[in-house]
Amino acid sequence: MDKIKVGINGFGTIGKRVADAIDAQDDMVVVGVTKTGPSFGCKLAVKKGFPLYCTSDDQEKINSFSNEGYKCNGGISDLLSVSQVVVDCAPGKMGAENLEKYQSAGVKYIFQGGEKHDLTGLSYTSSANHIQNLNARGTRVVSCNTTGLSRTLVPLFDQCGSLKVECTMIRRAADPGDSSKGPINAIKPVLKVPSHHGPDVMTVKPEIEINSLAVAVPTTIMHVHSIIADLPEGHGLSTDSIIRMWEQTPRVIVMNGSKDRISTTAEVMEMARDIGRKWGDLHEIFVWEDGVKLVGNRLYYFQAIHQESDVIPENVDCIRSLMGTEEDWVKSANKTDESIARYYSTS
Amino acid sequence: MDKIKVGINGFGTIGKRVADAIDAQDDMVVVGVTKTGPSFGCKLAVKKGFPLYCTSDDQEKINSFSNEGYKCNGGISDLLSVSQVVVDCAPGKMGAENLEKYQSAGVKYIFQGGEKHDLTGLSYTSSANHIQNLNARGTRVVSCNTTGLSRTLVPLFDQCGSLKVECTMIRRAADPGDSSKGPINAIKPVLKVPSHHGPDVMTVKPEIEINSLAVAVPTTIMHVHSIIADLPEGHGLSTDSIIRMWEQTPRVIVMNGSKDRISTTAEVMEMARDIGRKWGDLHEIFVWEDGVKLVGNRLYYFQAIHQESDVIPENVDCIRSLMGTEEDWVKSANKTDESIARYYSTS
Amino acid sequence: MDKIKVGINGFGTIGKRVADAIDAQDDMVVVGVTKTGPSFGCKLAVKKGFPLYCTSDDQEKINSFSNEGYKCNGGISDLLSVSQVVVDCAPGKMGAENLEKYQSAGVKYIFQGGEKHDLTGLSYTSSANHIQNLNARGTRVVSCNTTGLSRTLVPLFDQCGSLKVECTMIRRAADPGDSSKGPINAIKPVLKVPSHHGPDVMTVKPEIEINSLAVAVPTTIMHVHSIIADLPEGHGLSTDSIIRMWEQTPRVIVMNGSKDRISTTAEVMEMARDIGRKWGDLHEIFVWEDGVKLVGNRLYYFQAIHQESDVIPENVDCIRSLMGTEEDWVKSANKTDESIARYYSTS
Amino acid sequence: MDKIKVGINGFGTIGKRVADAIDAQDDMVVVGVTKTGPSFGCKLAVKKGFPLYCTSDDQEKINSFSNEGYKCNGGISDLLSVSQVVVDCAPGKMGAENLEKYQSAGVKYIFQGGEKHDLTGLSYTSSANHIQNLNARGTRVVSCNTTGLSRTLVPLFDQCGSLKVECTMIRRAADPGDSSKGPINAIKPVLKVPSHHGPDVMTVKPEIEINSLAVAVPTTIMHVHSIIADLPEGHGLSTDSIIRMWEQTPRVIVMNGSKDRISTTAEVMEMARDIGRKWGDLHEIFVWEDGVKLVGNRLYYFQAIHQESDVIPENVDCIRSLMGTEEDWVKSANKTDESIARYYSTS
Predict the structure, then answer these.
(1) Same domain flag for B192 and B263
(2) Which residues of chain A have pLDDT under 50?
(3) What is the C-alpha separation between B309 and B89, in angstroms, rounded?
(4) Buried-most residue among A87, A130, A180, C252 (CB within 10 A)?
(5) Cβ–Cβ of A219/C185 closer than 8 Å?
(6) How much is the average pLDDT of B118-126?
């Protein structure tokens, strides 16, 4: 079988990670990545051997790459002409314009969670609706927060048949490489109440009722979700059985804050660095075993989300879904994750 | 009427503030404050004219004050012998030992929220149970968080007749003057789930059903509560009527994040500094008007708590309650607050 | 003697503080403060009884105040017509435009350190050049950093006759009420090397040779200066005599990090809150006694600067200098500081 | 040639990194690593195939590993018996005790910069004194700060023949995985003035005269040095020639803050993550090209230090020096660095 040809439009925080994750697979290949002009990111692409393209078709901009010694293989149209699927990792607000380009070029497309569901009318996360995205023309991989909520809530819903959820999101205010955004010493509530974050889960799993509140806090490394989920009468679950279920769920890590000495997101990220993926990424959602408690029908738990990377393996699975090459999301997830694990092994 | 004679046992973060607040009243007087030994805090007490005592009755310790040029008027027993009420502002874990001293000395006593309800069997917050504390031998003013929750929930309960509440507490990790505690860049969930904070409200208002989850974040200035309250069917309230109610509630400030440009706790504290109380304190609970939303029977809102000072006026009211000199909590609260306002007016 | 009539153009971080400090004096009076339009700051002015004016002379803008219930007494020209001196506390980059207004109105003017020396051709700080500013038409009170350096370096220079200084400024990245600026977790060097900060001292004391390097760090409360000063041969000073000198210098506080348990700027600011000035301000420069060390002819020391407030009393002294009412800077400083101390006393 | 057999005593922040770096080389092999007991770190060792030993020889402690399913190969004495060199990565204050064990076992030893020079009487950093350490019985690899200073100062000294240096160290207050230490919002000067950090350079390069001042700030990711170096008359260097020299110095990276958009340590660390070493490490010292300026004979510059990892390659070089297998430090450095680069390449 020929490898799926994937173009990456935008090679920043998400784009560079998606490219690496695709490069780790044996059934797909990065045929090119775009940059707006010559810059540090180009060096990364060259080092990895990803062909460089320009985000624009403007010939002047295309030419500008050679001034800094980079070989640019053409504009976005040129990249689309050699791609079967394009993963859109462009900054927000470019969605509508880019969508048109992808559709006229006749390539499949994957947007990220910065875009709204309405743009594509279809959203994706591996555990929730891989099968509904099968062979679709295009879709949107949901945001880091929605992905995180889906990872733990979908299997819970599948056990229970119904679920009413409230989530308070304690969000990192800026990414680690962003030095301009604050606050330095304050908590910032998102005054749109309830917030848009929780309900976004319903774009991939409409049966889960969910609302959320959100605050931003002065940290750069992870979001934390404080979750309350009401299970239906007669759910038959226990704190323990829920923990066991998550331990067997792909891309969920369950550890014990007390025994494993992981009391904050600082230690979670340190553990992730030990795993050894590039950028110290943690694709998995982290659940504190000793922070899970079922009281009657109400479940309380905390989870931590690595906002820069949890959606990366979902993008790989999503490519297989759109191309119709793997119907079973668990098989795709395992293939994706094992390939990534091999890619980063040092020995 | 003679002024109520109040001793302050412990003159740190809370003690120094309670002393000032009492000093502002015309019906009570600070007869002394204790320190463990000569230190910077003694200078403050001297400047204000509060007689100094030693937290211990050990003669050597008492004598040590004069080495640094401070006049010490005796040990804790001496202070108790001239007090009618003692406000215990000692560090945690001294409760049981101190209680015994207060009881043998035959003075009324007020502990702070760092101690457990079981120590006194009675707790206090102005809006919830002033009347139940009337003429009691002693009580405990609840913590900053419990005080904050009571301020907004009790009037809501009084309107509705029942209330089920879930609160996520986003807590400042250290006080502004504390430079040793972290984390610097992490979120720390309290893994006791649900946390002890919310249910403490039931020590002053047992009819409110409440649970909570808590995280600590790298900020020093305020706690934020993210609150979900389920009102009973037929409550007859609206988002608007609830906001109006809180606007008329003592020690609650309602402002608009967008119109008043108060988007985070940083701007809340700056507004407090403009008010002009010592230490930039904010005795009031801050509610964002545009962060309140009633959806069906479920109310969502955010509030911010100045952890160093919201309990200060409660201690003053509590003295009147224990001494039986004012039965009406609203009258006491108004008297307390107006006296403090006058005390800090500069003109 | 009639009180000096002072207008304050701009009623923000600096303006509100200068107004209060002038209000505390018996030889000057605030005849008005300006705001760009109706906002929270107007409430403060009204509460203090400062007449409100509009920063612009546009009649529409002037009228807009009454929409929100504030009485506006006219535009900036109206304020200037009743002022003898105007203190310009407008945001940066308005200097040239405002200067013209002040000069045509024939009022004396004081700019702040955000403006460059070239605007006025004259700069001011109490200890360095009060006498050179006597009866001048207008001047510029230097920045918080320059003021801080002058406070400790000028008396040192006066003892030694020459001084070569290098200073590394570790700057707070944002003010406490500013929640938008970062970084949250990074150190930001000022890559203009050497930086402009140090040499600004030479606008008030040209005889001191000084350069500086600067970094911004994730804190909101104070700047810290790490200073190396080379004294001339035969200076006759010792670590101890230098400390004693600073202890007797106006607006310098010397404390011991170890004995007084003031190990960081957090404890310095807490001490300032205890002093009881509005906003928890610290007008004084803070020097750690145990961080001063003379090694041969090279002096090492640390000092901390409260960036929001150290220039406030300088503005008051500066008014007296421009009006020629007090030739002796120490007398002016004592009068200023004692008046402020009385103003904030609560008893 | 047989591979050099290296034991690692302590498998924490430094130990785990040193083990990986040795594993990347073809002339040395990790024969074992020690842990105090079974914990998360053991999992890492097992995954990498490093034999586990116990830091103690106590049989009970050795046995405790098997309770958690880890195979422990014995105590520290057993490890020493199969090692030619031991790299001591134990927590501070164990130095004297461990030294005795290493000496009686007759193995060569390398301590880290947490220990004092006096312990070994000999210190090491690749660029300064590789040759003086040749065939020595044991030594100490200097701290991250001293290593950083040596990297840029030693080649400068070698050009000039003399150097007088003052450095202000702006230090990260806690490591990324450490969530307990503060401050959250303060600057903490090190009140031992001048500080011990700078002079430690003289343990590896006694000819450089150097002093330092230090502050800790609320960040976790890097130290920044603000450096002033006085070159001798007739040095013949220029800002430009110094930059060119550092560009050719091993383990120094020179980039442009403005052109490369690396304005803070946040962007430096992000660039390091892109390089792709495990833990996002940056072994190199980072110098801002546009932050270097020679003014007369005085050189100003900033550099950033990745405190967790800059000493890692020095430990590898140091092993070759002690074993006498490579006399030329540049050859060793190149071998070390190229082997590490290969080890982490993903393709």
Answers:
(1) yes
(2) none
(3) 13
(4) A87
(5) yes
(6) 97
Q: What is the pLDDT of residues A26-76, one digit of tens each?
A: 999 999 999 999 987 899 999 999 999 999 999 999 999 998 899 999 999
A153 CA to chain C: closest CA distance, Å? 31
In a shared domain, residues A127 and A239:
no
Fill in the DSSP letter of residue A118. H
Residue C307 near residue C274, CB atoms below 8 Å: no
Residue found under tokens 């490219």: A19
Identify the pLDDT of residue B346: 66
Q: Residue A129's domain is classified under what CATH number?
A: 3.40.50.720
User: How far is it, in rounded angstroms, from Cα C268 to Cα C309?
Assistant: 14
CATH number for C207:
3.30.360.10
- Tokens 């380009």 correspond to A101
Which residues numbered 129-188 in A keep a CB inside 8 Å of some CB on C? 173-174, 176, 178-186, 188
Q: Do B278 and C276 touch (CB under 8 A)?
A: yes
Same domain for A295 and A162, yes or no, is yes
Q: What would the two tokens of residue D346 be? A: 């993903």
- Residues C136 and C155 occupy one common structural domain: no
At C138-157, the pLDDT tens digits run 999 999 999 999 999 999 99
**Which residues, 6+ apart, have CB-to-CB distance to B218 below 8 Å?**
A217, A218, A219, B173, B182, B183, B184, B185, B186, D184, D218
Which chains pack against A, by 3+ Cβ pairs within 8 A? B, C, D
Enumerate the H helices of A69-168 as residue ranges: 76-81, 95-105, 117-120, 126-129, 144-160
State what percent of residues in chain C have pLDDT above 70.
99
Please name the residue ranges forming H helices in chain D: 13-23, 40-48, 59-67, 76-81, 95-105, 117-120, 126-129, 144-160, 239-247, 265-275, 312-323, 329-343
Residue B181 is given by DSSP the state B
Note whether C95 and C159 are same-domain residues. Answer: no
**What is the DSSP pairing of strand B223-230 with strand D298-305?**
unpaired
Tokens of B320: 């009147």
Per-position b or e across B82-114, b if 16+ CB within 10 A of its CB: ebbbbbbbbeeebbeebbebbeebebbbbbbbb
Q: Which residues of C touch A175 (CB under 8 A)?
A: none
Q: Are residues B169 and B114 part of one domain?
A: no
Q: Which residues contact A159 (CB under 8 A, 6 or more apart)?
A: A235, A237, A245
D45 touching C, CB under 8 A?
no
* Same domain assignment for residues B165 and B280: yes
pLDDT in tens, B200-256: 999 999 999 999 999 999 999 999 999 999 999 999 999 999 999 999 999 999 999
Say which amino acid occupies A337: D
Whether residues D269 and A176 touch (CB distance < 8 A) is answered with yes
pTM confidence score: 0.96
Structure tokens that stand for C167 in this block: 């200073």
Which residues is A87 bridged to in the sheet?
A8, A110
Contacts of B234 (CB under 8 A, 6+ apart): none
Peptide linkage before C155 cis (omega within 30 of 0):
no
Query: What string of DSSP letters covers A300-322?
Result: EEEEEE-TTTTTHHHHHHHHHHH
| pLDDT for C240 beyond 70 | yes
**B-C Cβ pairs (cutoff 8 Å, strict):** 79
* D244 Cβ neighbours under 8 A, 6+ residues apart: none
Q: In which element (H, E) is residue A342 found?
A: helix A329-343
Range of the domain at A270: 144-305
Confidence of residue C345 (pLDDT cuts 50, 70, 90): confident
In DSSP notation, C12-42 reads SHHHHHHHHHHHT-SSEEEEEEEESSSSHHH
CB A113 within 8 A of CB A141: yes
Q: Are residues C179 and C301 in the same domain?
A: yes
- Strands C252-255 and C164-172, by their bridges, are unpaired
Q: Measured between CB atoms, does D103 come within 8 Å of chain A?
A: no
